[in-house]
Amino acid sequence: MLIDPCFSGLSPQHPLEKEAWFTWANQLVQQGVTHALVAPCCPLDPTFPSAMDDLVLEYQTLLDRRGIPLCLFASQLVDVEASPHQHYTTDQLLFADLNQRYVLAAIHPTTPFEALYPLLFEWLKDDIRPVLVGMETSEVMSANDQEHLFSQGCYFLVSSQSVMGLNGNRAKQAAWRALGQGQVQLIGSTATEPDGTHFTEALSAIRKRFGTSYGDDLLLNAKALVNGDPLITQFQLPKTRWRWPFSR
Predict the structure, then answer these.
(1) Digit-coded pLDDT (tens) for 10-48
(2) Measured in whole angstroms, how far is the alpha carbon of residue 164 from the centre of its chain?
(3) 204 burial class (0-12, 13-18, 19+ CB within 10 angstroms)?
């Protein structure tokens, strides 16, 4: 079982034509993905969960009819900066798991820490664990900010596109640095284009650099995420020094 815990290429606001969707699905299957958490990025909206559930059911039926071996789960990548925390209710959330334990939350490059704090800590107060997606692309978040978020109970998911350098050299450096420090609990494609997954390539690069156990733990965490189980947070990393896989 290979789970992509953050696939962003399908949303009620932008439904795909059937043939375009089959192109997406086949791309994921060719990457070895068997299950995908479909999580488009959008603000909190009370109409979104039911609309997303209906959409994923429709597209899952299309896959089943074609015999494409891909299982979809409906979720949401919450645009925290665009979601006022004063009106937050759990019925607005499409959780990453049926146990309502985890929520995927988007970090944009210019999102300041102050914009995240109110809603994230409302979730933490309600024993909901935010999984922050895109932290490696941040241009304004300090290392202390990230450490504070982690210490409060947030988790981090890096994009396979960042690992492979498709989001720029800055994001690539930040992704590999966070991986090397054991600060990353999950990896997802965050794909919004059919050729943008690079999921297995990123996993292979991580295994090559840090050993198979780290890559295996990241995959186990993806399974734990959709099941609502605790995530692994302590990783066995090489003790020898090595060069970062990018030029200065």
Answers:
(1) 888 777 777 878 888 888 888 888 999 999 998 888 899
(2) 15
(3) exposed
Strand, helix or coil for residue 182: coil
10 Å CB burial of residue 12 (0-12, 13-18, 19+) is middle
SS3 call for 30: helix
* pLDDT tens column, 162-219: 999 988 899 999 999 999 888 899 999 887 665 656 888 899 999 999 988 988 999 9
Burial class for 211, CB neighbours closer than 10 Å (0-12, 13-18, 19+): middle
Interior angle at CA 72, CA 2 and CA 31, nearest 5? 40
Choose among 45, 109, 33, 101: nearest CA to 72.
33
